[in-house]
UniProtKB/TrEMBL annotation:
Pyridoxal 5'-phosphate (PLP)-binding protein, which is involved in PLP homeostasis. This is Pyridoxal phosphate homeostasis protein. Keywords: Pyridoxal phosphate. Belongs to the pyridoxal phosphate-binding protein YggS/PROSC family. It holds the Pfam family Ala_racemase_N. Residues 3-220 form the Alanine racemase N-terminal domain. It comes from the Bacteria. It comes from Pedobacter ureilyticus.
């Protein structure tokens, strides 16, 4: 099947449930992104800043770019002019830098707090208590160029379905509590980004509003030079 065929299969299934599909285009060429774009996809996720910047400069302006990988503070300035959503905010230090760079471009950048829900030490993310401490701090209140629109989480990679569902459920429960406590009157706080190719159905069952699917749309990844240059 072509990229367009794969994409439309997921769009019809996922978007029919009111869930946003983020096509993860990392390590795939501009031509592949363009094929998905021509098939109607507008939301693309990238892990590496350099790769996103290079693709953004070659593709249509109405693409909604999501940074979904671990983001270093010294790389924020490169994506601040155009990024639509940073899904992987895993520290207050990073959030402050996003705010600083957004202000330089007279923008408010939407962000998700990445929450640590997996039973794996290799994953990034804020603990539940850390996220709440961030949101209740006066320093956070002072940030005017970022907007927290929801939460993101990545389940344990090798978990059984029962554990995966439980991890997603924990994120949904946290989201509901934060919504009531800090964003009760804010319609923009509405996103729960969880679920990838292997577990997106479980994620949607547990309340995901946004799923990230890559290889099942684009095929096997071609490892490009970005892997070697991003530090």
């Amino acid at each position: 099947m072509s990229i367009a065929d794969n994409l439309l299969k997921y769009k019809n299934e996922i978007e029919g449930d009111g869930v946003k599909l983020v096509a993860v285009s990392k390590n795939h060429p501009v031509e592949a992104v363009k094929e998905a774009y021509d098939a109607g996809q507008r939301v693309f996720g990238e892990n590496l800043v350099q790769e996103m910047v290079e693709k953004q400069s070659q593709l249509p302006d109405d693409i909604e770019w999501h940074l979904i990988g671990h983001l270093q503070t010294n790389k924020v300035k490169y994506i601040a002019p155009f990024v639509k959503l940073i899904e992987s905010v895993d520290s207050f230090k990073l959030l402050k830098e996003i705010n600083k760079q957004a202000a330089k471009h007279n923008r408010v950048i939407d962000c998700l707090l990445q929450i640590y829900i997996a039973d794996e030490e290799t994953k990034f993310g804020l603990g539940f208590d850390e996220a709440i401490e961030l949101l209740r701090s006066e320093e956070f209140e002072a940030l005017k160029n970022v907007r927290i629109v929801g939460l993101m989480g990545i389940a344990t990679n090798t978990a059984q379905e029962k554990q995966t569902s439980a991890e997603f459920n924990e994120l949904k429960v946290l989201f509901d509590g934060i919504k009531v406590s800090y964003f009760r009157k804010d319609d923009f706080f509405k996103e729960i980004s969880m679920g990838m190719s292997a577990d997106y159905k479980l994620a949607i069952e547990e309340g995901s509003t946004m799923v990230r699917i890559g290889s099942n749309i684009f095929g096997k990844r071609v490892i490009k030079h970005w892997k070697n240059t991003e530090s």
